[in-house]
Amino acid sequence: MISGAENTAYERLLNALAEQLKIPLLQIARTAELGTDNPKVDDLRTITSTADMALQLIDGYLLYGSLHNQTTLELEPVSISALLQNTAHYLTPFAKRLGCTVTIHLSGKYGPVMAHRGALDAAFKALGYSLIEASATKSTSTILLAAHRSSRGLVAGIYGTGQTFTGDSLRRGKALFGTAAQPASELSSTSGAGIFVANALLESMSSPLHTSHHHKLSGLAATLLPSRQLQLVTS
């Protein structure tokens, strides 16, 4: 049984480790960028995108630690359309290295949602990173970023071809995270850290990850509350 003091010390150790790991990863990424005129330019670009995504995961973890210690979370209106477009643009280079295609589907206009902008951005990048890795073993794989309305709010998520996401597999993964090497083997062949970093960030906004379907594709999504004041102004 881990006491409160031991748990705090463990969190501090993880924070220190994450900060320390950022230094060599930054060096790898910047060195690869400086050597892009090398004949092995594709290898260097792979190093760059991999290092940048690893840094993104670490930043997401550190951001969660910062938000977790705040008594109140600063929320602001965030455009889901812009967020998903930016995320797709960010993920595309990494996806190409793994033979995966990133697409986006936004039907209609969506008003802004209330969220912590930095946390929402980090969550979707971390989630996309993990789902691209999980899809890389498929002969043909596509990652779709999409949003649709529901009775509870705006559902924004990332969906994949050839994958089946179930509520049971997600619940088991959440229960086993931190105690098993592959806590969500149905969702990812890796540790799936990006999925759980994303979930932690979204939970801080009371919008945890859940399984979702969009145009016959299954994936993971968050249900976000619309900004009522801006809806009244723009209606």
Task: Present the secondary structure layout.
Layout (H helix, E strand, L loop, with lengths): L3 H31 L6 H28 L7 E3 L1 H18 L2 E7 L6 E3 L1 H19 L5 E10 L2 E8 L6 H10 L16 H11 L6 E5 L2 E8 L3 H7 L1
Parallel strand pairs: 2-4
Antiparallel strand pairs: 1-3, 4-5, 5-7, 6-7
Helix pairs in contact: 1-2, 2-4, 2-6, 3-4, 4-6
Can you walk me through this structure?
The structure is a single chain. By secondary structure, the chain is α+β, with helices and mostly antiparallel strands. It has 2 domains: 4-68; 76-234, Histidine kinase-like ATPase, C-terminal domain (Heat Shock Protein 90). It has 7 helices and 7 strands. It has a 5-stranded mixed β-sheet. Strands 1-3 form a two-stranded antiparallel ribbon. β4 (141-150) and β5 (153-160) form a beta hairpin. α1 packs antiparallel against α2, α2 (41-68) packs across α4 (117-135) and α4 packs antiparallel against α6 (193-203).
Q: With helices defined by DSSP (H or I, 4 residues minimum), what is the helix count?
A: 7
Strand arrangement within the widest β-sheet reads: 2-4-5-7-6
CATH fold assignment of the largest domain? Heat Shock Protein 90
State the CATH superfamily name of the largest domain: Histidine kinase-like ATPase, C-terminal domain
Strand content: 15-25%
**Count of spatially separate domains:** 2
How many strand elements? 7
Biggest sheet, open or closed, and with what strands and sense?
5 strands, mixed
Order of helices and strands: HHEHEEHEEHHEEH
Provide the gyration radius in Å. Answer: 18 Å
Helix fraction? 40-55%
**What is the CATH first-level class name of the largest domain?**
Alpha Beta
**What class, by secondary structure content?**
alpha+beta
Distance between the termini: 54 Å
